[in-house]
Structure formats: C-alpha cells, structure tokens
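We store amino acids, tokens; thus:
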Amino acid sequence: MSSINLFPTFKYSQPNEYHFSHDSVFLARRVFEFLRTKNIDPNIALDLCAGSGVFGLDLLFHLRAAGSNTPLVFDFLEVQDQYRIHFEENIRRLGTVQTKLQFINGNYSNENIGTLADAYDLIVCNPPYFSMDQGKLPTSKLKLRSRFFVDSDLESLIAFIGKRLSQYGFAFVLIRNQLEHKQDQLSDVQELCKGKLHLRTLDDVRGTDVVLLSRF
C-alpha cells in the first residue's frame, strides 16, 4: 500500500506525546473495502488496543460515507485511560453515527472485563509491535505502553481474539515482523492460531502484514 493516506477522514484528537501511526487509517480503509466487497454487516464490533479510537472511528466514517450499515455496538478496549478524553473528542469530531460507542478501560488479558460482549462479529486491532527487549525504551509511559507489550503479550492477544470472536466473525490484526531482532511474529501468530483460528495474510501496509483471522 502507498505510504500516503489516499482516503482522509477527519482531524483526530490525540496526545501530544504519542501520535498514532498511519497503519491504523490504512487498515480501516482495507477493512471497509473487505466488508463492502463481501456484503458483510457486523452487528457487534471491537477496536482492540484502541488508543484514542482512530482505527474504529475511521472505519465508521467510511461506512457512513458509503451509506453502508454501521455496527449496532462498537466497543473500544484500551488499557491506558489517558486516551479516553481524546476518544470522546474524536466521537464529537466524527459526528452522528447510528452506533453505540463505548470506551472500556481494561487489559485484554483480564478475564473479568464485565462490560465487554461475549462475542464480536468484527475485531480490529493495531497492537504494540515490540517486546520489552527490542530496542530503546521510550521515557514516556504512555508511548512505552502504546508501542511495547508491557501489560501483556502477543500470545494473550491471540488467545483473547480466539475467545471473543463470534462463530462467523472476522478479526483484522496488524503484525510486524521484527527480523532485526530475530523474531518472525507472523510465524509466531500462525503457530498460536493452529487448531483454533484460520489465518490469511491479506496485504502489506508499509512493511506490516494485514492478517485476517476467522474460525473458518
């Protein structure tokens, strides 16, 4: 995919100390095109590792602009509550959508997140790309937890998706190989999905794989 966002939506609110990468907006458009091509209308959706909600809200923008149905419920799960104020401002900037939007402050590795749905028809996720032993650690706590697996790990992320994805649902996840650190994350995810989830690689976004997970 191009490194230029060809489908701009709205100007996002985000913390000064950490701005989202363009991977989220590229993937939002890719998910929109997938749903439109396949004529899929998910009822309950989740933005996992949501940050300020850019990924999910961008997707809603595209669906609304195309006159497509939007999910009845769209949850946004984020471990850092500092993002909430930016999420709420982004909802205001997005404007009216016929979707119940909920910011949930919690860790996906916690089994007792009571406000989550039991199953989601659509999960979108731009997770941290790095483990704590990979590269120089940022001094900003917010930036550290946004870019590095601090609170959990890749295995727990895939396990969460496997537990919460509905029978005919789809999960779209960005996976970046850390070959300079001798880590093939795509192979790791393939191994974690064995016997649980079907994995397809759809695209490459600026060196990051767009992975589609489903039960079929």
